[in-house]
Write a structure and sequence with these properties.
Helix content: 25-40%
CATH architecture of the largest domain: 2-Layer Sandwich
Structural class: alpha+beta
Number of strands: 11
CATH class of the largest domain: Alpha Beta
Low-confidence stretches: 42-47
CATH topology of the largest domain: Chloramphenicol Acetyltransferase
Order of helices and strands: HHHEHHHEEEEEEHEEEEHH
Number of domains: 2
């Protein structure tokens, strides 16, 4: 006697159609058969499973849904896309969010505006962020390191090179400021401006774009309240900055408006844990809030 569960009506339909109930149940991997199963294919279709390195399943004729145009990706953009995709797929990254009081930096920029103009330099808050990050990388050496490809060795660096992500017409470029921890505010501002300008005109040499200890991605001039920047290997962390916002803080019962800059630290969780990231960003925020520590 058959072990397949089917109603008398289903069995009568199967008999009329010449369908073997038991064989159909085995083919479908089922123990219950209904009228709708009698015309089902012997081997049910299986949806393709996407592989990490296979995007062929994305090949869709979008023109069947409406008008489209096509734009070729530059070679530079293609390389960047592959690197970002691999980094996001392979690195277990976490993003820690915080913010820092930027009152003192704004005051110093106003105080030194005339001197900056005399030097032909635009003094931005980013220069202070670079100084603060350089100090933190010295104080937290595990952030100034790289993990070997086999994941067995941590390479600690006795230099501090900071990459600055620059948005250009031909894609994202990351020129690197060498030995940032040894440079003063004016030198950093001048070098940063020079590198950014040459990135826009694609006049950077290859040795000006590699070997960063850590990268800063600054969206403050565009907007946003936070984001999750992708770690740029072989670096272990990346700092994101967005637009300064006015936050109400309280001194006892007295409200006080304070300009605060959002900070987003993404890090490789294979090397850096959450407590380390929190301490790192807390120290960075303290240095930003008290830039006189950096100037001295």
């Amino acid at each position: 006697m058959s072990d397949v569960i089917a109603s008398p009506t289903t069995r009568r339909m199967a008999l009329e159609q010449g369908v073997d109930i038991d064989a159909r149940a085995r083919a479908l991997g089922r123990t219950t058969i209904g009228p709708e199963d009698l015309g089902a294919p012997a081997s049910p279709p299986v949806a393709p499973v996407a592989q990490a390195d296979d995007t062929s399943y994305w090949d869709v004729d979008h023109s069947t849904y409406g008008p489209v145009t096509q734009e070729a990706m530059s070679r530079f953009a293609q390389v960047a896309a592959r690197n970002l995709g691999a980094a996001n797929a392979l690195i277990p990254q976490v993003t820690h969010h915080d913010r820092a009081d930027i009152t003192a930096i704004d005051a110093l920029r106003k105080t030194w505006r005339a001197e900056a103009q005399a030097r032909g330099i635009k003094l931005t808050a980013l220069a202070f962020h670079i100084m603060a990050l350089a100090r933190c990388l010295r104080e937290f050496p595990r952030f100034n390191a790289s993990l070997s490809s086999d994941g067995k060795t941590l390479v600690l660096k006795d230099y501090v090179h900071i990459g600055i992500a620059v948005d250009t017409a031909h894609g994202l470029m990351v020129p690197v400021i060498r030995n940032a921890d040894r440079k003063g505010l004016w030198e950093l501002s001048s070098e940063m401006s020079n590198l950014a300008a040459r990135a826009q005109t694609r006049k950077l040499s290859p040795d000006e774009m590699g070997g960063a200890s850590m990268t800063i991605s600054n969206l403050g001039g565009i907007g946003g309240i936070g984001f999750t920047p992708i770690v740029n290997p072989p670096e272990l962390a990346i700092l994101g900055i967005t637009r300064t916002e006015t936050v109400t803080l309280w001194d006892a019962d007295t409200p006080r408006p304070v300009p605060m800059v959002p900070l987003d630290l993404s890090y490789d969780h294979r090397v850096i844990n959450g407590a380390d990231a929190a301490r790192f960003l807390s120290r960075l925020g303290a240095l930003i809030a008290s830039p006189e520590q950096l100037i001295i």
